[in-house]
Amino acid sequence: MFNWLKEYWDIKASYMERKREATICESCETLKMQLAIANDEKRQLLNQILYKPEPEVKVDTSELKPVSTLSHTGSWRVRQQMLEAEDREKAKILNREMKSPVATISTADLEKELDIVATEREAQTGVKNA
């Protein structure tokens, strides 16, 4: 008895499906994509016009030395000695920079200071630590 109703709904559903497919055409989708690309390009151009680019930081290349190769310096032994001498100079410079005017504290001084602090705590709390 209700078979005709089921059949009616199936026909209506297939009709609506065909109608929806007909409204989506490939040329419209292509045009939408092209419009999105054009809008994106306009937005990028506008951003470039409105915002100033950050100035480039210039690097001072006057202190740079060309890298010497093995053929320019002779044998490996000469090159090795040159590199070791450069490293010694760098180490001397670092040692001069690292030295601080702060006097070194001996272990005995630290122990005396700890004893003083411990006795002060005992006096405040009244409990002697073993």
Give the SSE map.
Layout: H1 3-23, H2 26-50, H3 70-73, H4 76-98, H5 107-125
End-to-end CA span: 102 Å
Coarse structural class: mainly alpha
Shape: elongated
CA gyration radius, whole angstroms: 42 Å
Runs in which pLDDT lies below 50 for 5 or more consecutive residues are: none
Count of domain modules? 2
How many E-type strands? Answer: 0
User: How much strand content do the residues show?
Assistant: under 5%
Average per-residue pLDDT, rounded, comes to 82
Please summarize the sheet with the most strands.
Answer: none
Order of helices and strands: HHHHH
List keywords for this structure.
130 residues; mainly alpha
Structural account:
- By secondary structure, the chain is mainly α.
- It has two domains: 3-50; 74-125, no CATH class.
- The chain is built from five helices and no strands.
- The protein has helices spanning 3-23, 26-50, 70-73, 76-98, 107-125.
- The N and C termini lie far apart (102 Å).
- The model has no long low-confidence stretch (mean pLDDT 82).
Short description:
With 130 residues, this protein is mostly helical.
